[in-house]
Amino acid sequence: MSGTSADGLTITLVNNKPFRTLRTKTYKYPAKLQQKILTARDFNASQISELSFELGKQYANSVKKFLKETKKDIKDIFVVGSHGQTITHNPCAKTPNTLQIGEPAFMSAMGLKVVYNFRVKDMVLGGQGAPLVPFFDQYIFGKSEPKILLNIGGIANLSVTGKGVKTFGFDTGPGNSLMDTVMQSAAHKSFDRNGAVAAKGKANEKIIKKILKHKYFSKAPPKSLDKGDFENNFLNKYFGTVNKNNLHDVMATLNILTARTITLAVRRFVLNKTAAKEIVVSGGGALNKTLLENISLLLPELKVHVSDFYGIDPMAKESAAFALMATLALQEKTNHCPEATGAKQKTILGSICL
Question: What would the pLDDT profile of 261-312 be if each residue is shown by its tens digit?
């Protein structure tokens, strides 16, 4: 899995029966490659094609390292599930479309079977193409007490599943993307470790109220976002230039904003449909202590747990989800939750590269 923050490639080794994650590791991208990914929306076709091959090579090399470190051979691997790097995602365009790159043939040439391109068929069937992880949540937690499964990557998304619940999910709004962008541009750091910078600032409630008027937050699901929906132009509009003088306050505002958008989503679209009493958090945002504290304060009626409470490394969940979906695709079994995306029917997602 390579998310919208483009900080690196997360690889997770998964055992299918019984399902469990065995090991996970994130291989950071070189700074130049990360910058290419973050600006790829403005590339021409030739540049995107070249980047796809560059990423494909990067994926293959990282997999080689991972196999060596885990003392596994290629023959031990049933399949690789590769989400790829999202360059653009436009489910509401005149012709809905999405593009994930990272040429899978490089891993296939190593002797691995690869399943990729998971979003496309969902969109062909009228879905948003995202979020896809609710299928994983249903598979793992669908028979337990109702839960809200919240993943905070660049974009935050949630799933709701459990006994008596018809599984559904959607993107709630910006997750780490705005905070990461500010930290990278104003502090020359990849992210706000533990939310320490945000914890020292004072949130601007006026700005938060203005942002919460954005039409996306009141739109009923199914719905999904592209990182570009909340990016540099958005930051410039509401915050202007960010420097060391206002960094703490901007980060505090963005941290609370993410927590508030999650809270709005839960109150408007979840709690009226289910008796869930728990929210389980994964993704990079699960490691942001300040963000978790803000979510807990805003949703006091829910117990907030990080996913490792249930034995799932918070950084492994998305990559583990695509490993599971790839396994089922190769077995010609459904790996799709259309209730989360708005697709017309269940299907088998993914293209296969042998």
Answer: 999 999 999 999 999 999 999 999 999 999 999 999 999 999 999 999 998 9
Domain boundaries, the chain: 8-125+315-353, 134-310
The domain 8-125+315-353 belongs to what CATH superfamily?
ATPase, nucleotide binding domain (3.30.420.40)
Closest CA to 186 of 235, 238, 259, 257: 235
For the residues 199-210, what does the mean pLDDT come to? Answer: 98
CATH 3.30.420.40, domain 134-310, yes or no: yes
Compute how many other C-beta atoms are within 10 angstroms of the C-beta atom of residue 75: 8
Return mean pLDDT, the chain.
95
> Is the separation of the CB atoms in 315 and 24 below 8 Å?
yes
Tokens 């990461």 correspond to 180
Burial of 352 (0-12, 13-18, 19+ CB in 10 A): middle
CA distance 342 to 332: 22
CA angle 161, 274, 160 (to 5 degrees): 25
- What are the residues facing 279 on neighbouring strands? 148, 304
* Residue in the structure block whose two tokens are 């990559």: 319
Helix (H) / strand (E) element for 31: namely helix 31-39
User: What value does the mean pLDDT take over residues 78-101?
Assistant: 96
How many CA atoms lie less than 13 Å away from 14 in the CB half-sphere?
25
Which residue, 238, 175, 251, 181, is CA-closest to 209?
Answer: 238
Residue 230 pLDDT class (50, 70, 90 cuts): confident
Counting Cβ atoms within 10 Å, is residue 58 exposed (0-12), middle (13-18) or buried (19+)?
buried
134-310 has the same fold as 8-125+315-353: yes
